[in-house]
Write a sequence for this structure.
């Protein structure tokens, strides 16, 4: 097995931190109580009331799959690819849920679509990185 270059570890570590931040945000979101939601602006309250369960599950798959996949990259494990693909599929499903409610999302937080675009770009980039690592013998 070939040793990956330093940049591979830098990218995988940054991506792991990115996905761990997503995990923290996801857990914090799940812990919101009805009285916490009631303190939010009306547009954000509507987003919480109307979001489908499958979109919440997709977010969990996206962040947990991404974090475990990045950990797999750092451990040089080939199974990282499958987890990063699952993460990308979770992001895509999450985006479907978000864009169904896009007008409400923009009203609640105009930066949210931009952040979600960054999430999608990172998830897209990690899949070929994992494949590339496997093709070069950096993962086993």
């Amino acid at each position: 097995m070939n040793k990956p270059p330093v940049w591979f570890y830098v990218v995988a570590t940054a991506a792991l931190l990115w996905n761990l931040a997503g995990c923290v945000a996801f857990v914090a979101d799940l812990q919101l109580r009805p009285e916490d939601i009631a303190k939010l602006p009306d547009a954000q309250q509507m987003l919480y009331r109307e979001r489908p369960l499958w979109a919440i599950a997709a977010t969990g798959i996206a962040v947990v799959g991404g974090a475990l996949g990045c950990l797999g990259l750092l451990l040089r494990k080939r199974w990282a690819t499958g987890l990063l693909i699952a993460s990308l599929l979770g992001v895509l499903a999450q985006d479907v849920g978000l864009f169904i409610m896009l007008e409400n999302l923009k009203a609640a937080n105009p930066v949210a679509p931009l952040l979600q675009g960054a999430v999608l770009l990172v998830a897209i980039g990690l899949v070929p990185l994992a494949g590339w690592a496997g093709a070069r013998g950096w993962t086993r």
User: Anything to note?
Assistant: The mean pLDDT is 91.
